[in-house]
């Protein structure tokens, strides 16, 4: 087998054998196949797709490219959540300690920013000192001790995905159902969890914007989970506007703390509580979704969820005082207000363009080796359905890059469509697939 021939075979839309997929992925992981050939391979898959059999082989090959975690001897039910990515999606920062406070263990291997969306690890690392680099033994111990740990992939856990993930981010091959399935499920199965809840985004800010394709993605993810004996639920949620009011790594930490204090935006709390409720229901801690939500709200109201967040931050060497005194965090060199160009009602917000603008401000990566500025970001003061007046502030952005100030202001303003018709905010929970 030659990499060139396999790339060409997939470019022509032909199905690859199990042995061919294993050869390509294993060769790339070992360093025998270079980045430029894997980039060509990813592009061929992006355009030609993978069959169910090819996707299953890819998941299995990536899963066994490294070590898996065995948590069977840890007491209690182990459940994780994964989102396919969205603008302003800081749910994991709230969800992980909240579910752990409910007595369910949450082992979570998370990713970094991908394309126009932020990454959980980048957000957590905005907290001074926060450590996401763990050995498998350290990961197991923290899950057992406090019920929650969020770590990055190390060289032992699905190394094939770690290398492919970085290439997908900078080669515009993110929006591929089989590649998304393989990346998510190989990592999640490797965690040794009992259950998994998937937040599958749909709409203009999602990797898969079209609802029909989103549902296909959700169904294929659930099918793969069942194949590997996971209790699994997929919730299709809306990403036609950013989730919550803040975009950017430290800004999203701030909004997450506010959510755990009971002051989170309604849309963020609705999605978070829905996903948490499915997690603790899978774990047998509630008999229904409504009962689960009551339990979760009690944990927030009592302060137990926030205490678990502080415990989680301290356990991972984060500066707890930083999240207890949010106003002391360093500020960006520049901040600018964005004002409405006319009177009216916000008809839509282009989440994708907002996400890309936040990347240009420094909140994401344009190249693999870019360093993220945790202070950079955007705050939204108006959402879909809100009334605005000409000259009213609709958003504000923050950056250390003086060169992007004029373009960023125009880009953010143009993402808001303002008209005369009354509109309702988008429905947030579209469908649950079990």
Describe this structure in words.
By secondary structure, the chain is α/β, with parallel strands linked by helices. The protein folds into three domains: 47 residues, Transferase, Pyrimidine Nucleoside Phosphorylase, Chain A, domain 3, CATH 1.20.970; 230 residues, 3-Layer(aba) Sandwich (Pyrimidine Nucleoside Phosphorylase, Chain A, domain 2), CATH 3.40.1030.10; 89 residues, Aldehyde Oxidoreductase, domain 3, CATH 3.90.1170.30. The two termini are 40 Å apart.
Brief summary of the model shown:
This protein has helices at 3-11, 18-30, 35-48, 52-63, 91-101, 120-124, 136-146, 159-170, 177-190, 211-227, 249-260, 266-282, 289-302, 304-315, 320-324, 351-363, 405-415; strands at 79-83, 106-109, 148-151, 195-202, 231-238, 246-247, 334-339, 344-349, 377-380, 387-388, 393-399, 416-419, 429-433.
What secondary-structure arrangement, pairings included, does this model have?
Layout: H1 3-11, H2 18-30, H3 35-48, H4 52-63, E1 79-83, H5 91-101, E2 106-109, H6 120-124, H7 136-146, E3 148-151, H8 159-170, H9 177-190, E4 195-202, H10 211-227, E5 231-238, E6 246-247, H11 249-260, H12 266-282, H13 289-302, H14 304-315, H15 320-324, E7 334-339, E8 344-349, H16 351-363, E9 377-380, E10 387-388, E11 393-399, H17 405-415, E12 416-419, E13 429-433
Parallel strand pairs: 1-4, 2-3, 4-5
Antiparallel strand pairs: 5-13, 6-9, 7-11, 8-10, 8-12, 9-11
């Amino acid at each position: 087998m030659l990499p060139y021939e396999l790339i060409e075979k997939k470019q022509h839309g032909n199905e690859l054998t199990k042995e061919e997929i294993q050869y390509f992925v294993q060769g790339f992981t070992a360093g025998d196949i270079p980045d430029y050939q894997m980039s060509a391979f990813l592009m061929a898959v992006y355009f030609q797709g993978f069959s169910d059999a090819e996707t299953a082989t890819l998941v299995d090959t990536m899963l066994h490219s490294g070590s898996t975690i065995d948590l069977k001897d840890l007491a209690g039910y182990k459940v994780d959540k994964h989102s396919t990515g969205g603008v302003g999606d800081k749910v994991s920062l709230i969800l992980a300690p909240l579910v752990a406070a409910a007595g369910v263990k949450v082992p979570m291997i998370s990713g970094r920013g991908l394309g126009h969306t932020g990454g959980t690890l980048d957000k957590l690392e905005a907290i001074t000192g926060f450590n996401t680099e763990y050995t498998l033994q350290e990961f197991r111990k923290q899950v057992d001790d406090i019920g929650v740990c969020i770590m990055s992939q190390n060289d032992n856990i699905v190394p094939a995905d770690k290398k492919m993930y970085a290439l997908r981010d900078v080669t515009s091959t993110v929006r591929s159902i089989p590649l998304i399935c393989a990346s998510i499920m190989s990592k999640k199965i490797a965690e040794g969890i009992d259950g998994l809840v998937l937040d599958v985004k749909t709409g203009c800010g999602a990797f898969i914007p079209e609802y029909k394709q989103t549902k296909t993605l959700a169904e294929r993810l659930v099918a793969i989970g069942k194949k590997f004996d996971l209790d699994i639920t997929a919730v299709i949620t809306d990403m036609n506007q950013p989730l919550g009011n803040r975009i950017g790594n430290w800004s999203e930490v701030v909004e997450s703390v506010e959510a755990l204090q009971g002051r989170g935006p309604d849309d963020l709390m609705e999605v978070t509580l829905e996903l948490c409720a499915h997690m603790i229901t899978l774990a047998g801690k509630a008999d229904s979704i409504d009962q689960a939500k009551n339990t979760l709200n009690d944990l927030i109201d009592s302060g137990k969820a926030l205490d678990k967040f502080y415990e989680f931050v301290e356990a991972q060497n984060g500066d707890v005082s930083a999240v207890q005194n949010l106003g002391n965090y360093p500020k960006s060199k520049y901040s600018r207000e964005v004002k409405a160009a006319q009177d009216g009602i916000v008809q839509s917000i282009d989440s994708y363009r907002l996400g890309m603008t936040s990347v240009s401000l420094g909140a994401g990566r344009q190249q693999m080796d870019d360093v993220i500025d945790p202070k950079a970001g955007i705050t939204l003061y108006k959402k879909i359905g809100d009334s605005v007046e000409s000259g009213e502030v609709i958003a504000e952005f923050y950056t250390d890059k003086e060169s992007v100030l004029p373009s960023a202001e125009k880009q953010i303003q143009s993402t808001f469509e303002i008209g005369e018709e009354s509109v309702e905010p988008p429905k947030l929970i579209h469908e649950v697939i079990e």
